[in-house]
Amino acid sequence: MSDQNHYIIDLKRLPVGTHTFDIRLNDEFFQSLEKTEVLNGVVDAKATLNLREEDYQLNIAVHGTVFVVCDRCLDPMPLDIQDEQEMFSDEEEMANDQAVKGQTLDLSWLAYEIVSINIPLVHSHQSGGCNKQMELLLHDHLCDEPEPEDN
Fold first, then answer.
1. What is the band of 100 on the pLDDT scale with cuts at 50, 70, 90?
2. Is 58 helix (H, G, I), strand (E, B) or coil?
3. Can you name the residues that pair with 48 across neighbouring β-strands?
4. What is the C-alpha separation between 62 and 85, in angstroms, rounded?
5. In this structure, what is the dihedral angle of CA atoms 75, 78, 83, 85, given to the nearest 10 degrees?
6. Hey, where are the domains in the chain?
7. pLDDT at 129
8. pLDDT per position as a tens digit, 26-44
9. pLDDT at residue 125, rounded to an integer
């Protein structure tokens, strides 16, 4: 993830004002993460940081496509991602000089967090989109008999 280091913003070195950053999360980024549902993909993000003396406001808009495993057939499937989130700093934290000294924002990680909250809990291909061989196996193991009723 060393190529992503230029997305880490040191707030104490940044001048007050509005700053924009373009971020790209690609296959290399997703594959460097442990325990993620995302297999690969390309997601572009635009971050707008409004840094003030006492606090900051950050807006991140993401759009792109990631690939996850289909829960039904286990093949990779695409998911289109598009979202925008706004974040605010804690005013007390920014007012305290000690807190600001080490404060950084990892924009690539924040963009990834937005991607991850947009992945549904259950993901499967649309009807007819699953692997045909797996569909046949699943169909062969379906139980068509009704369960007995308790008396």
1. very low
2. strand
3. 20, 59
4. 9
5. 40
6. 2-140
7. 81
8. 999 999 988 889 999 999 9
9. 84
State both tokens at 113: 């967090």
Q: What is the pLDDT of residue 93?
A: 53
The C-alpha atoms of residue 24 and residue 4 are separated, in whole angstroms, by: 9
Tokens of 125: 């291909």
Strands in 33-141 per DSSP E: 40-51, 56-69, 76-88, 104-106
Cβ atoms within 10 Å, residue 109: 15
C-alpha closest to that of 48 among 97, 14, 80, 93: 14
Residue labelled with tokens 């967090």: 113
Task: Report the b/e string of 64-92 with b at 16+ CB within 10 A.
Answer: bebbbebebbeeebebebeeeeeeebeee
